[in-house]
């Protein structure tokens, strides 16, 4: 019944002249979910109705094209429906079918189970047989002088589609699978080839003849596809390697190197890539990443990936069996090839404001990937190339320090900072504060983080700051002198961890091995209170509702003190209490107990000394605002704006601008 109804629905659409999208909407209304359009043979039903007359019905064909574009029907059912049409004398109908094939034959794919994939292979084999029969029909008609011109035109269209289908290695592979599945169908292809061959003599030595011969030889090569190992030395582009490297550099700087090494080796083996070309492709991808990446943090990440992480990856690749040649010879050969890509290297040098090749060669030599003689030879060749090319340094870039040099210098600094953090600073906490303050200047922090991420040290680097109460400096009794230092150490640690989480993801900071009941303050705060993409914060979460006595004393302190007292503060408790304090202050403001001037004084107290208080306050306010109606948000938004504006005054602690 459904098949009958389907034909009736198509005829009704044609009679009432529905547009293609109207037709699709109504079809979905007529036929509720359950049976798919492929089971109902929608493609075949549409073609059957469209091809009734001497020329195709354009309206019904537009329905089929819409069904293909919107994926109502699969490519395999469309190809099977086309291959059932056998009245080749109707030239206009054949032309329409060839145009429908153009819509998808260069990007064949299917979604679903293995059976659907096999169906696509079989359908493509049927379509190939149909195209051969079609070409044979018109090649035979060329003999008739009266129909020669029209027949040649039709044959040309058939051969173009044949060539388009067969030029794709993927399509030939799908046909090969269908041949293995159904040998009887392949014998139909062979018979069609014989018939076409018999009629090719009618074409003489025209371009159509050579085009047909090319198609025939491609079809005959399909059965031997698996046995022919094509020599790939002439092929120099390997987009899979390129994609793997670009994806890793963009999305996964902090990841372990071993999985990347294994992925690259798998691609190398599967595609039988010679080692020099394999290494060349890795460096090409790195340089493209350097050139294309956005400015700022992403640029530093790519620089660290190229100059620190990838040499480490090659060191691990060196341990895998690579063939007869020494791996250092392959690396040298890859760099020789890379030197020929002068425009790529020039563009990278221009972007980074330095000789990237020279720095990379020095780093590879340091890692034992190149001999000193090879390194010097390659550096000299690149220097000679640069002398011959126009100057790439612009006047405004002359004073900018190049990122690659800064990243390479930042890497040993990370190790030194890790050692510094482990030392006992209880007697002179100012020394530790000096180190942290220096890290905040300019883009030092981003350089250090990128270097740490690329060398696998970011997690241990971040963990040093996760327990800001644990360094021995905090054990000494609070005093008027140590109060500001403790406040600053806490604040810088907190702000740096927020920055790490926002730049590299919170998983870099989280520990797998916290003892039960001993989750550090920052981890608790980050998991429950820190806004992140895709995370919905609950402003009524218990973490925002600490001990009421602490909240009351904090509200009093913020409201009454001319400035925050730094000596007796436990900063992690303050940061956990600030959200509840802000709620109390907001309610007092809403009810007219506090004036706008009082609110200004309170926000200045919050942001004036320890910036992390303002961060915690705004994190809660953002969650709170989302729960309010549009007409209730004004005071909360005003408070966010005030807290987000830096304080311009002399009465602030050290490193205020950096913080």
Automatic annotation (TrEMBL):
A GO CC term attached to the entry: mediator complex
UniProt GO BP: positive regulation of transcription initiation by RNA polymerase II
UniProt KW Cell membrane keyword: no
Coiled coil: none
Protein localization: Nucleus
Keyword Nucleus tagged: yes
InterPro entries associated with the record: Mediator_Med24 (IPR021429)
Keywords: Activator, Nucleus, Transcription, Transcription regulation
Alphabetized GO MF terms: transcription coregulator activity
Protein family: Belongs to the Mediator complex subunit 24 family.
Record PANTHER family: MEDIATOR OF RNA POLYMERASE II TRANSCRIPTION SUBUNIT 24
Identification of the protein by name: Mediator of RNA polymerase II transcription subunit 24
Gene: Med24_0
């Amino acid at each position: 019944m459904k098949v009958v109804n389907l034909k009736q629905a198509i005829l009704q659409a044609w009679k009432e002249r529905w547009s293609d999208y109207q037709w699709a909407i109504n079809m979905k209304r007529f036929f509720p979910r359950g049976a798919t359009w492929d089971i109902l043979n929608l493609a075949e039903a549409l073609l059957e109705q469209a091809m009734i007359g001497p020329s195709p019905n354009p309206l019904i064909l537009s329905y089929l094209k819409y069904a293909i574009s919107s994926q109502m029907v699969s490519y395999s059912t469309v190809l099977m429906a086309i291959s059932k049409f056998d009245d080749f004398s109707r030239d206009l109908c054949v032309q329409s079918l060839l145009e429908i094939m153009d819509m998808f034959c260069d990007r064949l794919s299917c979604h679903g189970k293995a059976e659907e994939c096999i169906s696509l292979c079989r359908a493509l084999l049927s379509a190939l047989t149909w195209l051969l029969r079609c070409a044979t029909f018109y090649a035979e008609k060329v003999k008739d002088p009266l129909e020669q011109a029209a027949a040649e035109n039709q044959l040309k269209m058939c051969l173009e589609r044949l060539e388009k289908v067969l030029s794709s290695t993927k399509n030939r592979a799908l046909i090969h699978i269908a041949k293995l599945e159904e040998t009887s169908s392949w014998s139909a292809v062979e018979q069609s080839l014989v018939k076409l061959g018999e009629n090719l003599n009618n074409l003489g030595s025209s371009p159509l003849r050579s085009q047909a011969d090319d198609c025939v030889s491609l079809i005959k090569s399909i059965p031997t596809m698996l046995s022919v190992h094509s020599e790939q030395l002439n092929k120099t582009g390997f987009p899979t390697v390129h994609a793997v490297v670009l994806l890793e550099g963009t999305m996964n700087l902090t990841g372990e190197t071993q999985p990347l090494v294994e992925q690259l080796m798998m691609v190398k083996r599967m595609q039988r890539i010679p080692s020099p070309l394999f290494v060349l492709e890795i460096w090409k991808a790195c340089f493209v990443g350097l050139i294309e990446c956005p400015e700022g943090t992403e640029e530093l990440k790519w620089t660290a990936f190229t100059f620190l992480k990838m040499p480490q990856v090659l060191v691990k690749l060196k341990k895998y069996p690579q063939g007869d040649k020494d791996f250092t010879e392959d690396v040298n050969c890859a760099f020789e090839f890379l030197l020929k890509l002068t425009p790529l290297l020039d563009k990278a040098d221009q972007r980074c404001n330095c000789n990237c090749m020279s720095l990379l060669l020095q780093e590879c030599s340091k890692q034992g990937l190149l001999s000193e003689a090879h390194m010097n030879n390659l550096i000299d060749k690149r220097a000679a190339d640069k002398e011959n090319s126009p100057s790439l340094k612009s006047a405004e870039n002359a004073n900018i320090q190049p990122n690659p040099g800064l990243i390479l210098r930042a890497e040993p600094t990370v190790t030194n900072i890790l050692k510094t953090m482990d030392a006992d600073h209880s007697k002179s906490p100012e020394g530790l504060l000096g180190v942290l303050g220096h890290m905040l200047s300019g883009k030092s922090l981003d350089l250090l983080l990128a270097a740490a991420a690329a060398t696998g040290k970011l997690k241990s680097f971040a963990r040093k700051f996760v327990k800001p109460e644990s360094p021995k400096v905090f054990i000494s009794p609070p005093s008027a002198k140590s109060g500001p230092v403790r406040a600053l150490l806490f604040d810088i640690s907190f702000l740096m961890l927020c920055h790490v989480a926002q730049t590299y993801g919170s998983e870099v900071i989280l520990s797998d091995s916290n003892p039960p009941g001993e989750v550090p303050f920052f981890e608790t705060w980050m998991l429950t209170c820190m806004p992140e993409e895709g995370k919905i914060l609950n402003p009524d979460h218990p973490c925002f509702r600490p001990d009421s006595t602490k909240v009351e004393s904090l509200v009093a302190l913020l409201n009454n003190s001319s400035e925050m007292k730094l000596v007796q503060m436990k900063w992690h408790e303050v940061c956990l209490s600030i959200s509840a304090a802000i709620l109390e202050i907001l309610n007092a403001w809403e009810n007219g107990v506090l004036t706008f001037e009082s609110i200004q004084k309170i926000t200045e107290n919050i942001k004036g000394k320890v910036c992390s208080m303002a961060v915690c306050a705004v994190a809660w306010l953002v969650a709170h605002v989302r729960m309010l109606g549009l007409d209730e948000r004004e005071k909360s938004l005003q408070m966010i704006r005030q807290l987000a504006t830096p304080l311009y005054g002399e009465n602030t602690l050290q490193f205020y601008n950096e913080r």
